[in-house]
From TrEMBL:
Protein name according to UniProt: Transcriptional regulator
Annotated ranges, domain HTH luxR-type: 876-941
One GO-annotated biological process of the protein: regulation of DNA-templated transcription
Organism: Streptomyces avermitilis
Pfam family, one: GerE
Residue numbers spanned by region Disordered: 1-25
Alphabetized GO MF terms: adenylate cyclase activity; ATP binding; DNA binding
Length: 944
């Protein structure tokens, strides 16, 4: 639609409009142009994205035109239009329809989804993330044939569905020959998923650059009026140009050059245009209202509308001569988007509504509905009903952002408060499912004002609490959910059950484990007479609360029973849909806390496989972090790859708590491997986004810093962090030591800093927890502490044997190596070097294989001190340790037998990206075939 062009071989300089290419390079902006030049120069090898941010008139569009004009390859261009933002996938269609021949290169599921959302095929509910992956695949395929530049102006007015696709693509262009350059106003797209896209903020022009721009328009320093223009413009180039034009016109007519109104407060650009509008004939100003009101720049529609108003296109001649409108290639549009509110603001309300009614009469489908909505002077159920129907249709197309906007406008026009509340809830649901939890929370609050039905109020409260949880405010979420549950319990027990169940997770996140257990118990009581899924969900949440809050054996038994009850979670429950997958993930996460990781892993594998297969990654971050918790005990590289992907998806969806937990898990691995700087940087990121808001995670963050300090050989700092973490855990009621893998580190740090009594107290706590929970790790950790505290060599050897028995009950190689290292150190201290050598050598091998370099160095030094005379074979970490997390994910997918196309679909990447990663994988591993890769990944334990 609006100004999309496909140009091959570059664009010659052809004008000075906002979206047009410039005859001269933009004045100033040397740094910005250097960045853009660098992006274009590298385009034959790699791609990237850049977001230009600045106030209206600062030159964003000029820079886009400069970039397109300099490019010597294919250029795709589109521009958001405020009035079209309600129409789903408008800009995506503009960009991708010229590339339709490349649709054939997509996997069938992605192609169907993409064609469905673009109305090229009749597809019910095309998956939005299959659309995102398909769009990336099309652009990548086109870029493979010829490098591709995509230019998008006014991103803040791009329809939300297209914006989601652009955001997805912008983060994944490193290996493609595609450059994406976008312009946006300040304050838009700054947080969440866009935070990782490189952004350049355009500030005011320097004074010398202002004079350079004025000289291009015939003014110089000798002109007394020019100095005033520079001061009035405040460095805004568009203001300078508009004022220079206004000055020239006034001088040409002999009018007074200045009056005091030019100094009045307000946007300078709008004031300049108001003056131009006032100078136009009345007939032209009346016609311009139609141009501003049109939700599409279609010239045919505008011609019909003007004819219905008793005029024709000739009425726009004066506006076209002054450059306020452009008519070409079948479209008519205003020179700059800022003109739209200026034009509409200068006409009467009656005139504006009349124009919208005429446009509605000449339009059909969604456009007609939105014109009718704009023409409604107040509540109108007929129009609200049409908007609701359009929202349902958009929801079926999975254009959730467009559906949410339609529901919200329908609510605004609803005469009945009950209808308004219901439609606001629907708007909030689509916003929430579409990844905009902030809008969902705000609209739920609006809905509560209108709702008088306790059941509807409960449904609104449920979604509101879920949105607050996603937004990283678990304390408020828990309070809202519990209050809503108590309010509806007398009239609707099943709804109260849902609310209590939803309140358990934020209570855990907020560190209120005892309260979470009480709420989970109440949820289970109410679920006894509910439907099967609700009953199971309540039972799972109760069991998880028990596993965290101290009654581990009871929680473990309940979780295992729930797993058995489903008979085959992989074949049955997980395949049913998101609700059952959520239950399966909750069961698996609970089992990871009760020494049942082997039972949890296949459930999580199946959930992850299903979400990838269905191209529905909304649950991926949760499932990947669940598997990361399991793998953290035994397979660090798999855990790191899962945490890194979980972080990407959590950021994609704005899941603050998930992002924070992923950062902590990655930081823990960094710290244990000896990369203290990376560990601290990740924890700093966590604290910036989440610190103080997620008490449950704050404890993990302090524990991570403590473990990293001990790894770095700083027991004093370690003890400071871990004592704080221990106090936090105690305050929360967390007594499951499986979630506190740093407790033995606290005992070691205490002993190394001379606080033997504190080390004994920590060891006793572990002993009590091992007895109460029957878990393997606290038993092994207690035995390790007793080795450290041993008074004789024999006592150390006896406790080492006890520890080895405990370690044999669960796969935890790092913890076992830590125990063996401590035992070797103690035995050598008691002058038993020959007895120390075996555990020290075993520890060294394990640390090296895991990539825990500082621990391997410590073991190596102890081996040498123990007098080991035979040359120690320098074991090397697995070659897969050389892979980045994403390379590892690609290698694992290919190692499991997926083709490149299947791996691309599963990992939401393009085929070109898969091939690029695979090339690096082959080089790093020194292999040449897929069968070699499968063997290598199997040897590393990454595939079955």
């Amino acid at each position: 639609m609006d100004e999309t062009t496909v140009v091959t071989g570059g664009v010659p300089g052809a004008g000075t409009g906002p979206a047009g290419d410039t005859e001269f390079p933009p004045v100033g902006r040397e740094c910005e142009r250097a960045l853009l030049d660098g992006l274009l120069d590298a385009l034959t090898e790699r791609g990237g994205a850049l977001l230009l941010s600045g106030d209206p008139g600062t030159g964003k569009s000029m820079l886009l035109g400069y970039t397109a004009g300099r490019c010597r390859t294919t250029v795709l261009r589109a521009r958001g239009v405020e009035s079209e933002a309600v129409l789903p996938y408008t800009v995506l269609a503009d960009l991708l329809l010229p590339l339709r021949p490349y649709f054939t290169e997509l996997p069938p599921g992605q192609r169907r989804a993409l064609e469905g959302c673009l109305a090229l095929a009749d597809v019910a509910g095309p998956n939005p993330y299959a659309v995102c992956a398909g769009a990336l695949g099309v652009l990548a395929a086109a870029g493979e044939v010829r490098p591709l530049l995509v230019v998008v102006d006014d991103l803040h007015w791009v329809d939300p569905s297209s914006r989601q696709v652009l955001q997805f693509v912008a983060r994944r262009l490193t290996t493609e020959r595609v450059a994406l350059v976008m312009a946006v106003q300040p304050g838009a797209e700054e947080d969440g998923p866009w935070a990782s896209v490189p952004r350049v903020a355009l500030g005011p022009l320097a004074e010398d650059d202002c004079w350079t721009l004025l000289r291009r328009h015939g003014l110089d320093r000798t002109d007394p009026a020019a100095d005033r223009l520079v001061r009035l413009s405040l460095g805004n180039p568009l203001v300078l140009v508009e004022y220079a034009g206004m000055l020239a016109r006034m001088r040409a007519t002999g009018a007074t050059q200045w009056d005091e109104m030019w100094e009045a407060p307000g946007p300078l650009v709008e004031r300049a245009w108001r003056g131009q509008l006032r100078a136009l004939p009345h007939r032209t100003r009346e016609a311009l209202v139609y141009v501003a009101a049109c939700r599409t720049p279609d010239l045919a529609l505008l011609t019909k509308a003007l004819a219905a108003d008793g005029t024709d296109l000739d009425a726009l001649d004066a506006a076209e001569r002054t450059g306020l409108v452009r008519i070409r290639d079948g479209v008519c549009e205003l020179r700059h988007p800022v003109l739209r509110p200026v034009v509409l603001g200068q006409c009467t309300t009656a005139r504006r509504l009349q124009v919208y009614r005429r446009l509605a009469a000449l339009s059909s489908d969604e456009l007609r509905t939105w014109y009718l909505a704009a023409a409604a002077p107040g509540p109108d159920e007929a129009v609200a009903g049409r908007l609701a129907a359009d929202a349902e249709q958009a929801r079926r197309r999975n254009a959730l952002a467009a559906a949410a906007c339609a529901w919200h406008r329908a609510a605004e026009l609803s005469p009945d408060p009950a209808d308004a509340a219901r439609r606001l809830l629907e708007a909030a649901r689509d916003a929430f499912c579409g990844g905009t939890a902030r809008d969902a929370a705000r609209w739920c609050e609006q809905a509560l004002v209108h709702s008088r039905d306790p059941r509807l109020t409960a449904d609104i409260g449920l979604l509101r609490g879920q949105a607050c949880t996603w937004l990283g405010d678990p304390a408020r979420a828990h309070r809202l959910l519990v209050d809503a549950a108590r309010a509806v319990e007398p009239v609707d027990r099943p709804r109260a059950c849902l609310l209590y169940g939803a309140a358990v997770a934020p209570a855990m996140m907020d560190g209120r484990l005892r309260h979470a257990s009480d709420i989970a118990a109440r949820c289970q009581e109410l679920a006894d007479d509910g439907r099967d899924t609700q009953r199971r969900h309540a039972a799972v949440m109760r069991a998880k609360a028990q596993a965290l809050g101290g009654d581990v054996p009871t929680g473990r038994a309940a979780l295992l029973a729930l797993l058995d009850e489903s008979h085959s979670p992989v074949a049955m429950d997980i395949a049913r849909g998101p609700e059952e997958r959520q239950i399966a993930m909750d069961i698996a996460q609970g089992l990871s806390w009760t020494d049942d990781g082997e039972a949890a892993r296949p459930v999580l594998d199946a959930v992850i496989e299903c979400t990838r297969r269905d191209s529905s990654p909304t649950l991926l971050s949760y499932a990947l972090l669940g598997r990361c918790e399991v793998e953290m005990w035994s397979h660090w590289q798999q855990a790191r790859a899962d945490a890194a992907e979980a972080l990407r998806w959590a950021e994609e969806f704005g899941l603050l708590a998930m992002s924070g937990y992923a950062l902590i898990q990655l930081a823990r691995l960094d710290g244990l491997r000896g990369d203290t700087a990376a560990c601290e940087e990740r924890i700093a990121r966590y604290e910036h986004w989440c610190g103080g808001r997620l008490r449950g995670l704050d404890m993990f963050a302090r524990g991570t810093l403590g473990a990293a300090a001990l790894t770095a050989g700083d027991p004093d700092t370690c003890r400071t962090h871990l004592e704080a973490a221990f106090r936090m855990a105690d305050g929360m009621g967390l007594v499951n030591p499986s979630l506190m893998p740093w407790v033995a580190d606290l005992a070691e740090a205490s002993l190394r800093t001379g606080a033997r009594e504190r080390a004994v107290a920590v060891a006793d706590w572990l002993a009590e927890r091992a007895e109460a929970t029957a878990l393997a790790w606290p038993a092994a950790a207690y035995a390790r502490c007793r080795v450290m505290l041993a008074r004789t060599a024999q006592e150390a050897a006896d406790w080492l044997a006890t520890a080895e028995l405990a370690h044999s009950k669960r796969e935890m190689p790092f913890e076992r190596a830590r125990t063996r290292l401590v035992a070797g150190e103690v035995l050598r201290r008691f002058r038993r070097p020959s007895a120390a050598q075996e555990p020290l050598l075993a520890a060294q091998r394990t640390f090296t294989a895991l990539g825990a370099a500082p621990w391997a160095a410590r073991a190596r030094a102890e081996v040498a001190a123990a007098g080991h005379r035979t040359a120690v074979r320098q074991t090397e970490p697995s070659l897969t340790e050389l892979l980045t997390p994403q390379e590892f994910q690609v290698a694992r997918a290919i190692g499991e037998g997926l083709s490149n196309v299947e791996a691309a679909a599963a990992l939401f990447l393009s085929r070109k990206t898969i091939e690029a990663h695979l090339t690096r994988v082959y080089r790093k591993l020194g292999i040449r075939s897929r069968s070699d890769l499968a063997r290598c990944m199997a040897h590393a334990g990454a595939v079955g």
